[in-house]
Amino acid sequence: MKFSDLFREHGTVEHYTKGQHIFKQGDKNENLYFIQSGFLKAYYLSSEGKEQVKSFISPNSVMASLLSCYANGVCSFSLASLEPATVIKLPFSYLLQQSQQDLALANQLQNLLLELAMKKEKREYEFLCLPAEQRYLQLQNDTPELFTKATQNDIAHYLGITNVALSRIKKRVNVNNSQL
């Protein structure tokens, strides 16, 4: 069975409005979510209320808090819709149960987890090793649609910089591009 078939046949379709949360940091949530449409952000809130954007999630992606749905903990981050979204939720335990009986499904799950691990590794490298301007340029190159869907504040929080720093980077980039 294919991942997409499992979601369609056994999942629950849910609709979210702009700004609505699918789950919040500290919640218990046992589900894996397939994003059919919309654009989402996953973010952390510090104890002081400072937001850091973990990732942006586009259609045809899968998202979950593994600490909550697999390790029986609570969600370490929040997941919110940046525009109206349609998702299909499926209990992670059901996916695990089915993957133990279906080698093709188990392989798809393994590939999904490897893709998530590589995405996380790339994000960590960029965040820890690249200067903010280079992270901004890479984000522009890799995800141009982000700049029409997310606020400047969200982009700054993703890059780990202030809005003022982002404005300065944008100005420098625009000056450099106009000189080419």
Automatic annotation (TrEMBL):
It holds the Pfam family cNMP_binding. It comes from the Bacteria. SUPFAM superfamilies: cAMP-binding domain-like (SSF51206). Coiled coil: none annotated. InterPro entries: cNMP-bd_dom, cNMP-bd_dom_sf, Env_Response_Regulators, RmlC-like_jellyroll. Residues 15-66 form the Cyclic nucleotide-binding domain. GO terms for molecular function: DNA-binding transcription factor activity. CDD domains: CAP_ED. GO terms for cellular component: cytosol. This is Cyclic nucleotide-binding domain-containing protein. It comes from Paraglaciecola arctica BSs20135.
